[in-house]
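Task: complex structure prediction.
Instruction: return structure tokens for all chains below.
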Amino acid sequence: MAAKKDILIIDDEQVVIEGAGKILSAYGYSFEGALNAESAFSLLKKKNIYRLILSDIKLPDKDGFQILEKLTAEDITIPVIMITGFSTMEYAVKALQFGAIDFLPKPFTVEEIISKVMRGLAYSDIRTKYLAQQENPVFDSEIFFVPTPSQYASLGNISWAFETGDGVFNIGMTDVFLKTIGQPESLELKKEGEQIFQGSPCLIISAGEEIEHELLAPFSGKIIEVNKKLVNDTTLLEKDPYFDGWIYKIIPQNPETEMQILSGFTSYVI
Amino acid sequence: MKRHIGSKIIIAVSIVAAFVIGIYALVTVRAQRDIMLGEMIRNSNQLSEVVRRSLHRDMLSNSRENILDIINTIGTEPGIKEARVVNKEGEVVYSSKSSDIGKLLDMEDESCYICHKANEPLVSLQMTERSRIYKLNPDSSSVMGIINPIYNQPSCYNADCHAHSKDRKVLGVLDIVVSLEAMEKQIIKSELSVLSFAFFALLTLGLVISFLINRLVTKPVNKLVKATTEIAAGNLNFRIELKHKDELGRLADSFNEMTRKLSEARQQLFQSDKMASLGRLAAGVAHEINNPLTGVLTYSSFLMKRAQNNPELLEDLKVIVRETKRSREIVKGLLDFARQSAPKKVRADLYEILDRAIKVVENQLVLNHINLDKRYSDTLPQVTMDVNQMQQVFLNLLINASDAIGDKGGKISISTSLIKLDPKGITRMTKAVCPKGHDLIDNELKIGGFPSIKVAFKQSFTEGYINLDPVYGRYMHHFGKDFNSAESAEVSCSQCKTSLMPQGHQCPQCSRPMVVLAIPGEGNVEICLNTKYNYERWEKVDLTGERDFLQIEISDSGPGIPEENLEKIFEPFFTTKGQKGTGLGLAVIWGIIDNHGGTITVDSAAGKGTTFKVRIPVN
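Output:
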């Protein structure tokens, strides 16, 4: 049995695997690389030895979306972060729609990949614990996170949106996302009147060690109000992630189409 | 020869004309011949009668010299071949040909045959029966023999000589043979003149028809044929110069109209096609370039982490990381623009966007001594648009203007206004239903890029479907080949066949009943299918009046764009900036404006400066 590795990198470019690998090793993560989907799946046969998969979207034998489908079909629950040189918002949203937990556009810096990998690994652990508990329920079980209310629209496990009336939507961060970050040190909020776009960063969260996390917006629209309480008290995000912990109030630009996109997402158990 | 329509018409007309003229000539010649022959017979009979009477007395007195003298005199008359008297027994008693005298003729002789052809010889002869035409020998010209029976009269059988008994009815015949040579010559002459008349008539007719057909049919048809080959060869700017006011003239007009629309459509298609290939190219380039960039960025940013204690190295690495990040942004920008990704539209203030764009180029303008003249109209309504894309549009236009002027100084003016444009030609029917509520929109067939409206039609001999142009007032309907627009048609719902032509909707131009489409929430559209007038009325849209557009004009005092470049400036990869430009700026702008439902046009002449005019619909 091979030694347990943290991350599987699937990319048809050796330099990408090596570059990313160097960074991951420097941060103490172990990894293995696969140059195509076939060798990736033969590595994956040694079940559950990876905590996270980083996969390119364009591979010689399969595309990243097919890989996501095959993982679901083979009941492999390892979370996937998509990496691609085709870095548009549509692709990012599509990757999330297919069940990827995040999206990493090429080329990336050390900070960018580490931020995503840290969150991905944290998420992977939460998911593993959660699934184990589902399989073997224990009374008085530990609560890992507060799930997003079912009437909320959410962008994967990242952000949520909820209409408060008169066409105004509250935008916030899911509790799972916050749990993967750890304790936020400071928030870099956008200003009133600014635009946000579905699938694009709308908030930058610093969480120590020079690592910044980006929150992707669930909806496009114009910010009409920013939650000022958050600036002074970031714990509000944790205390009440779905009500008082809202981040922006926005007037969405085309809620119908974007709602349709969100409802087309692979249902996230977690 | 057979391949020319003109020749075919000329041949057909010539055949008919030749037939008619030929019949006419034949009838005329026949009639003339009959008249001449009748005249000849009458004259000859008269002569024969005169001769018989003048011989009568000499016969009674039996003065043979006198008789022979008269016969000879007659025989010498021009045109008279022979004059002779034959008795009942068939003996030639007198003849102008002395050799014939005493000859015995048999019953088959031309002179005897008429009366003696039956068993019982005829006693009396009708005027018409007296003459017979025959040839003396096969080579000679025809002759006409006139026989005049010499009847037995009291003076004959009572004469002293008692030569004839009383019971004989006919004593003999006076036979005069007249030559028809002169008459036949005459007839040939007149035949010739009729024939030559017919020939000249035919020739003249042929020439006149050739001339007219050449002028009225062949030349215009050749022009049309030339036009179609030009179009087929791809020259959509070709126009037919035809002044005719007839059907061919109208055909040429509609042909020109068709090519004009075709040319527009191709231009549009060409542009979108190029944008599409550009998008594919950019996607490929982005993906391929991003992989090596990933190598550079990961290694350099990794090195930067490791070189925290080496400030000198750190600074250099920072440059590499910064520049690689810049390359990343360039590739991303290329991808975003070239892909023409669906604009992220929000309601926005045009002035904010303009001012942001101006801020970016301000320094460059100052450096190049360029004055910026802002002539903003007081208030403009907010418009739904993609803020970033529109900012890119104005930024690119400003940079182009600044580049055009160069560093010698000049002026750029930006003016904005709210203009109104007629809703005709720009308003689209996005929904249309029949009285029973069936959806008439046909997504299969698009006209000018938009789903058409499908209805069923019925005419006297045919039925089928029509796809109506969804753009109000553009009239680019697809009728199909079975439809005759000159004839009125019964139009009904393509699904339930409920009539779409209610009473009381007559076209004010041609008074035919019109098609009435219900547009949910937008009233009714009345459409006349007579393509001669192309009448449409959409009362609700007409009432709302003209549509509002924001118009932004950016003019520069640069050298202007030469005419030959004007057509090409929106084409991808067309650039006059040499190595400095990619030739994508204006192509991308065009795509962005198009995505916003607006238009961008350029007005320029060498030495006059350039003005770009952008129009964006206010909705």
